[in-house]
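Appendix B.2, paired examples.
Example (i):
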Amino acid sequence: MDMQGTRQLAITQQLAWDALNDPEVLKKCLAGCDRFEPTGDDTYNVGMAVKVGPVSAKFSGKVTISEMTPPSGYRLAFEGQGGVAGFGKGSSAVTLTPNDAGCELGYTVSAQVGGKIAQLGQRLIDGAAKSMADDFFKRFDNEMQLRHAPPPADAEADAAVAPAEGGEAATDEGAKPGLWARLRGKS
């Protein structure tokens, strides 16, 4: 299986690089991943549940990063065993190119699968791989928005002291008055 694509990211090249090298971010963004642990220089043990068509399995494996050129990209190799469901192994190249909107992430993946998963047929495998990639990028975009999105334009106005019902500033244990009024539904 071979796959390639690009995604526009609304964050800087450096922020994308940092996130793509953070095991916790990767664990959150890979659906079914319950383990993404460093084991040495640029090597990680990974555990994740994968479902391809009617075949579900818990895969254990490792990811090794190489040819790093911070913050522009790297290559990685992966391999995993899913018991009787089969195995997966392959490599990927990731590039980050800055642009006016943030940066563009480019990727290529070359992978092989074996066992029961391989018996499902190439179209089903390719569809599952594309779905996993789309899900990763959706989760990655959401995580980056949570971590790096600028505050809403009206956040400063809400933080200012605003009179609550009756003309007095409402507070609760040091909460910002604008927020407190909004939480009470009286803004």
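Example (ii):
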Amino acid sequence: MFPTLVRRLAQATKPQANSAVSGTVKLKKVWPPDLKSMSMQQQLRFEKKYKRRLKLATARPRWDKMVRLGQLFSITFVLGYMVLFMDWRDVPTPFDPIREKFYGFFGVFTEETRKLDRRDRYIPSQPSTK
């Protein structure tokens, strides 16, 4: 790796492939354009075109979509946590009916009801009903 680096540094530079840079071909348009020589309408048209092209060149649709989804999921998670699981310290909130329905629906998954549902296994803490 190091000999290759030294060899490449010692080589002469290659000529530019773009002939417009070397001056053999005359450019069609001068860049950047002289805005002082343009009329107001031409300046406006040029600025609109430049902004549109710049926006298209810098567009990152996949990144933007992932950022939007990340924001959506994080806001949804925080709001869901606040409504369903956050301890409000005995303060009545407008979310109480939603919390009661949620815990009523998922109440069958609590530890107490899980022990009562399975009759096929022996639970020493409960007396046998047979």
